[in-house]
Specification:
elongated; 3-stranded antiparallel β-sheet; alpha+beta; 6 helices; 4-stranded mixed β-sheet; about 20% strand
Length: about 200
């Protein structure tokens, strides 16, 4: 099948209401056209504004009830060994953000409904913290645990974003702790793993 024809079929299918999608799908299957073989079309331009999914609506509602809660934060932390180029790390994250719309999305209430606001760009700065080596303060391990807990516990602002926070604790010249925290409205455990794999 010609690529342009396949793209038109996929775009037509995706923009139909659910009841009409079922009929369209049945006709495709009767003609031995499998939806699995169709390309994934860009459809964002078909919607102005972009509505929230049901899962996003639930997260938006819960956030409005308690915007200071970190209950729906998805934190991840990893130890990095060896020399670290922080500016390269930051560029890597900004490349991910440029590639994935969900990392550039915030949310707004418009009239009676909430909508997604997909920003053309959103820059991330990696916040770098230093281990406190003052005698008598917490041990390095206790400071690391406190740092990770603090980063995971900070709430997100779904209206202003960003919905990804990256912080780095410099433990030593060759050792760092990297924390990544996202809000569940923009990510889940599986997509967090994909993001980390892409970054690596």
């Amino acid at each position: 099948m010609d690529t342009n024809v396949a793209l038109k079929i996929a775009r037509r299918f995706i923009t139909l209401p659910l009841d009409k999608r079922r009929v369209y799908l049945q006709k495709m299957l009767e003609e031995d056209v499998s939806p699995a073989n169709l390309p994934i079309p860009e459809t964002q331009s078909q919607f102005d504004p972009v509505p929230l999914s049901f899962a996003q609506e639930r997260q938006w509602f819960l956030w409005q009830m308690n915007p200071d809660s970190a209950a729906y934060n998805i934190p991840s932390a990893m130890r990095l060994q060896g020399e670290l180029d922080v500016s390269a790390l930051e560029r890597g994250f900004n490349t991910l953000i440029a590639r994935h719309q969900s990392l550039r999305t915030t949310f707004q209430q418009q009239d009676e409904r909430a909508v997604q606001v997909i920003h053309p760009q959103m820059r991330l700065t990696v916040a770098v913290h230093e281990l406190d080596e003052t005698p008598g303060v917490l041990s390095p391990e206790a400071q690391i645990q406190a740092f990770v807990a603090e980063q995971a516990g900070q709430p997100f602002d779904l209206v202003n974003g960003p919905l990804l926070r990256v912080s780095l604790l410099r433990v030593g010249a060759q050792e760092h702790v990297l924390t990544l925290t996202q809000h569940h409205i923009a990510s889940d455990g599986a997509s967090m793993r994909v993001m980390v794999d892409e970054l690596l």
